[in-house]
Design a protein that fits this description.
This protein folds into three domains: 213 residues, Growth Hormone, Chain: A, CATH 1.20.1250; 224 residues, no CATH class; 247 residues, Vaccinia Virus protein VP39 (Rossmann fold, 3-Layer(aba) Sandwich). The strands form two sheets. It has a seven-stranded mixed β-sheet, sandwiched between helices. Strands 1-2-3-4 form a four-stranded antiparallel β-sheet, with helices on one face. Strand 8, helix 21 and strand 9 form a beta-alpha-beta unit. Helix 1 runs antiparallel to helix 4 and helix 10 crosses helix 16. The relative contact order is 0.10. The longest helix has 34 residues. About 6% of the residues have low confidence. The protein is built from 24 helices and eleven strands. By secondary structure, the chain is α/β, with parallel strands linked by helices.
Length: 723
Amino acid sequence: MTNGNRNFAIVSALTIFVSAFLLFQIQPLISKYILPWFGGTPAVWTTAMLFFQSALLVGYAYAHFLSANISPRRQTVIHCCVLLVAALTLPIIPDSGWKPTGNEAPVARILLLLLASVGVPYMVLASTGPLIQNWYGLRLPGQSPWRLYALSNVGSLLGLLTFPFLFEPAFTSNQQAMGWSGGFILFALLCAATALVLRKHVPATASSAESAVNVPGEAGVNAADPVGTKWLFWLLLPAVASLMLLALTHHLCQDVAVVPFLWVAPLALYLLSFIICFDNEKWYRPTFFTIFTMAAILAVSGIMAHTKIDERLEEPWGVWFLETISLLPFIDLKGAQFETLAENIYFQITSVLAAVFGICMVCHGELVRLKPGVNRLTAFYLTVATGGALGGVIAAVICPIVFESYHELHIGLLLSFIFTVSVFFDAITRKAEKIRWLHIPPLALTVAATGLVAFAQWNSMQDEYLVSMRNFYGVLHVREPTDEPARRRLVNGRILHGVQLMDEEDEMMPTTYYSRSSGIGLAMEHHLAVQPRRVAVVGLGVGTLAAYGKAGDVIRFYEINPDVIKIATEYFSYLGKSDATVETVLGDARLSMENEEDQNYDIMAIDAFSSDSIPVHLMTTEAVDVFLRHLKPDGILAFHVSNRYLQLTPVVKKLADEHKLPFIVISAEDSGVAVSASTWVLVSRNQDILDHPEFAEAATDNFDKFDVRLWTDQFSNLMEVLD
C-alpha cells in the first residue's frame, strides 16, 4: 500500500471512529436532557431510540442514494454542503420552548423536539459509516471495508460507555452539549478532508456502480448471485434484535430505575454483538452462543414468573409440569435459593443484560452469514437500518396500541427462544450430520426448556384486573380484592401505587406509605391541625392523602398521567369522600408550579420517587427554589424517598444544606393492615416546626449519611445513589 493509500485509509478510519463515537454519545446525552420534561418515564428512552433508529435509516438511505446515483466527485461536493448545514444547527442544546404543558401527545412532542435539536447532525453522522466505506472501496479496490464497520461499532461502544462513567459525573448537561458540538466540528473537518482526498484520486467520469468490486475471498453473496429471499432476513433479524433490545431495556428500567447506565449497558452489548460478528465471522460460534442465549432467557423468564408461580403449580397440570421439568439439571422453581436470587438486583440486571447480548449475538451472527458482496454494501446497510427502525416502531408505536400490558416482552422472549433453538439444531446438525442419535439428548432438553419458557411467559401474562390502562407513562392495573380484609390496589408492574380498604367503615383509612405513623401522616395530623390548610401533593396515586382532609382544607394534587386521575376518581373513593376541597392539576408538577402564582401551601408532599421512574428534576436545587416559593414560611416540605434500589435521603439532605434548611428523617415500619414501610424527609424554614413532640419522637438518625454532589438541573447522577 502506497503512502497516499495508507494516509487515506487512516483518515477514513479516524473519520468513521469519531462519527460513531459522537453518534452514540448523543443518544444518552440528549435523552437525559429531556427526560425530566416528560415525567422521567422509561418510555422517553424508547421513543428517543425510535427517533435515533429512524434517523439512522434516513442517513443510510442518503448514503445509498449518493452511492448508487451520483458520481464520486459530485458526492464529495454534496456531502460537504450537508456537513456545513449540519454545523450551522449547532449547538445541540434543546430549546426550553419544547417543554410540554400537559396537553400534548408526548411521543410526537419528543420526536419533533429531537428532530429540531439534533436531527440534521445525527443524520449526517449516521450516513458516514456506509458512505466512507463505499469511498474506501472506490479508493482502495481489493481491500475489505467490512472491518471499518466493526471499527465504527468500537467507536459507538466507547461513546456509550464513556457517558455514564466519564462525562456524566464530571460535566453539566450544557457542558456536555457544548463539548459534543465541538467534537462535531472536528468530525466535519475530518470528513471534508476525506472527501477532498477521494476527489483528487477518482476520475471525474467514474461512477460508484462501475467502481464497486467484490473483494477476493470475501464471504457473502457474489455480484453474480441473486439475493433472493436473503433480503428478508437482512430486514427481520435486525428487527428482532432491535425490538428485544428496547423491550428488555424498558423492563430493566421499569423494575430498577431510569438510570442512564441502564440505557447504555444494553445498547453497548447490542453494539458489541455487531463488533464481534462483523470483525471476523470466526468469532460467532452458533453452538456456544445459542446455549448461552437459552440459559439467559430461562433466567429472565424465571425471575418474571417466580412471584406468581407457586399458586399455579399447585394445580394438577402444574404438579405434572413441575415433575417433568425437574429432569432438567439445576432447575428448582420452588426453591428458596432461586427466590433469593430472583430478588437480587444484580442478578436481575445481569440476567437481562445477558439475554440482550445473547439474542443480539444470534441475530447478528446469522445476519453476517447472509451478508452480500461489497457491491451491495450500502443496500445491505439500508435494509439492516430499516429492520432496526421497524423494531423501534413496533416497540414504541404499535405495541402500546395493540397490547394493554407489556405482552411484547413475553411474546418476544418466547419467539426469540424458539428461534435460538432452531439455530442451535441447525448448528449441531451441521456438526454431526451422520450421527443422528447424538441429537436426542439435546432435543429432549430443549423441548423441556422451551416448555419452561412458554410456561413462565404465559404465567407472567396471566392476571385478572378490574381495569388495565396503558399509555406513554406506563401500564396501570387495578386489582380486585382477593384477601381479607378486602383491599383494592393500583399497581404498575411490581410497583404498588396505592391501596384502599373496601370495608365501608375503614375505606377512608390512610394506607401504605401514608399511614398515620409515616412522616407525611404525622405532618397531616399535627401541623396546623386546628386551622384550614392548603396542601400540595406531587403524585396522585389513588389519592390516599385526601383521607386527612378536613372541612375548609384544600388539597391540590399534581399528576402527569391522565390515566391515574381517571382511575383514582372512578375506582377509588378517597377523592370523592374527602371532607376537604380536592383539586387535580394535569401535567408535570414543577412545570405547572413554575407557571402558577404563589399558592401559599402549608404542607407540600413531593411523592414521585417510590415508583419505577425517578423524575430527577423534582430533586434539584432549582426545584426546591420553586417549591419554597409556594410554601409558607412556617410550612413543611415533605419528600417521600422510599425506594427499593436508590438511596435518596442523602440527595435531599444535600438540598436542605444548600438552602440552609433544617430537616428530619422519619421512617415507619410495616405494621397493621395495608401499612407499608416508608421513609420521609421533612424540611422546613422553621426549626421549631420540626421540634414538635410527635415529629421529634419519630425522627431517626439511622439513615444513609454518605455525601453526594448537589443535584442541579445541569447535573444529577443516579449511579452514585444506586444501592
